[in-house]
Amino acid sequence: MARLRRLLPAALCLLLAAAGYRLTDGRAVPAEGTIRYVAFDVPAAALSRALEADVRTEGEIDWVDLLAALACRYGGDWSNYRQTDLDAAVAERERGQNTAEQSAYYAYYRAAYGAVLDGLVGDFSEQQTDGAGNLVWNRQYGLKAFCPIAAGFCYSESDDFGAARSYGYRRRHLGHDMMGLTGTPIVAVESGTVAVLGWNQYGGWRVGIRSDDGRRYWYYAHLRQNRPYAAGLAEGQRVRAGDVIGYMGRTGYSATENVSNLVTPHLHIGLELIFDESQFESDNEIWVNLYPLMQVLARHTCETVRAADGEHTRRYAFEEGTA
Ligand SMILES: [Zn+2]
């Protein structure tokens, strides 16, 4: 028994280390260095409210700081979320304070949530048509990431992250499914570089795009049979947020290329976080639930136009930054 008691703390330390924590004075605090686990379960209502404060103050109040502060308050359990708590955190920021920064967990939540959200808000310019029908540039600060489903195309979705999947082997669903019609244009959520493109037994025709800061790998799968990708899309190519990258389909669940073995056409979109290059395409991948974020991105959709050959391209030019 005494031996068991001696062994228990060691076992606990190992478990904590695996989850990215260390034991200090009997408390689990996030370990310095690489984050190995992220549960991104911030509700859409909290994301929206924090984003509003960020946009209203043009970044003076950072939405990720706010969400990290609330995560500390809730011990990471967002089932306790109340809008009044977020509003109080905003008021504190407006007074130039951030008491949550004193929490041992703040750095962890700021880094974890920042890996998901940091690239999605900022300065950008987008063309639009003025009253006289001329194209004009509209410069703004706000949500620059796009909903992956092009504007005007219907889709349905549910919170299906973590649901059981049985094709191949029993596993958890590490992404988010958006059901729609075959041929629906799919646009890049965020700017980045095409890292992976081609056939995968599970994902069918799929494309993976790495964010410019390297922390996010966006994975778009089950694209259309025969003509899955936007014309000319290739590995190593740079894409902008809102660029058409491919078309919805139901390919996959086959070792043979170009087979549509899924019943319902849908986009499977996944987001993998990469804090350390060894995590990419490893047994320790960190995939996060995109359902709440998709509720927020639904308000920023990209208009596309269809050419005679069936190819869709974005209607309005888009530039990131203040230039
Ligand atoms: Zn899926």
Structural commentary:
Strands 5, 8, 10, 11, 12, 13, 15 and 16 form an eight-stranded antiparallel sheet that branches. The protein is globular and about 55 Å long. The longest helix is centred in the first third of the chain and has 17 residues, at 2-18. Helices cover 23% and strands 27% of the residues. The protein starts with a helix and ends with a strand. It has helices spanning 2-18, 44-56, 63-74, 83-94, 106-117, 291-297, and strands at 21-24, 27-30, 121-129, 135-143, 156-157, 164-165, 171-172, 176-179, 185-187, 192-200, 204-211, 216-221, 238-239, 244-247, 266-273, 286-287, 304-306, 312-314, 318-320. The chain has 323 residues and is of the alpha+beta class. A hairpin with a 3-residue loop joins strand 10 (192-200) and strand 11 (204-211). It has three domains: 1-32, no CATH class; 39-128, no CATH class; 156-320, Distorted Sandwich (Glucose Permease (Domain IIA)). The model has no long low-confidence stretch (mean pLDDT 91). Bound molecules: zinc ion.
